[in-house]
Amino acid sequence: MNAAALSALQEIDSALDAIANKRPRLPEVAVHKVAADALAGLRSQVADAERRVTAAQSAIDAAEHAAADLTTKRSRLESQLKTVIAPREAEALMHEIATINARRGELDDDELAALEVFGEGQAELAARLAELPNCEAELTAAASALATAATALDAEAAALAVARRSAIEQLSPDELSRYEHVRTQFHGIAVARLQGSHCSGCHMDLSPAELDGVKSVAAGEVAECPQCGRMLVR
Ligand SMILES: [Zn+2]
User: Fold this and answer.
1) pTM of whole model > 0.90?
2) CA 170, CA 9: separation in Å to the nearest integer?
3) Rounded to 10 degrees, what is the CA torsion of 51, 57, 61, 63?
4) Cα-to-centroid distance, 23 and ligand 1 (Å)
5) Which of 17, 52, 108, 151 could pair with 121 in a Cys bridge, judged by C-beta atoms 3.0 to 4.6 Å apart?
6) Which domains does the chain have, with CATH numbers?
């Protein structure tokens, strides 16, 4: 077993794992998320304001349309009234005209209320739209900072991939497959180091007899940790 090449490979793989871990935890990721959420929130406020303005406009149109209909009807009744002779009939017409006038008053109130909502909605819409460019610029800047940080990690990973290929070239297929197998088994750490009398993988102390066993393995060769089973190098 080529202890030096296995140790080198382990270091490279641990560095690659660290990069993979770091990627989603980059501060730029959090800043980007905040900016994206802020823009989404603002766009939803814009859409809300637009809906309120449109609804108020429809209410204004409906009130005006209904009022115009009533005006037409009232003109017709007023003409009728001029030709009516029977007092009872005239009274009925006048009553109808009064009802129309009352209804017109209600419609005017409705329209006024809708106009107020329309004005408020438009003011809100204008204010939110004015915030949009700044909010969009913040997201663009955050996306660019994130891309820069990701590119730096990509470059680190690419350099490690090159080093990994040359480390692998120094290992036999058997050594490599043992390494890969143990690495999967121990969540990424296949090769541990003997530090004093303990294993850097499981942090367990080896008994003097176990220590003698590990030390009896020739320098440059690979022992096995009697506690955890990882490949153990000195
Ligand atoms: Zn161990």
Assistant:
1) no
2) 10
3) 90
4) 29
5) 52
6) 22-170 (1.10.287.1700), 175-233 (no CATH)
- DSSP states of 143-166: HHHHHHHHHHHHHHHHHHHHHHHH
Distance, in Å, from the CA atom of 146 to the CA atom of 24, rounded to the nearest integer, reads 11
pLDDT tens-digit series, residues 83-114 = 999 999 999 999 999 999 999 999 999 999 99
DSSP of 101-150, one letter per residue? HHHHHHHHHHHHHHHHHHHHHHHHHHHHHHHHHHHHHHHHHHHHHHHHHH
For 121, the token pair is 């909605």
pLDDT digits (tens, 9 = 90+) for 134-155: 999 999 999 999 999 999 999 9
| Ligand 1 centroid to residue 193 C-alpha, Å | 9
Spacing, Cα 172 to ligand 1 middle (Å): 24
Residue with tokens 């641990």: 14
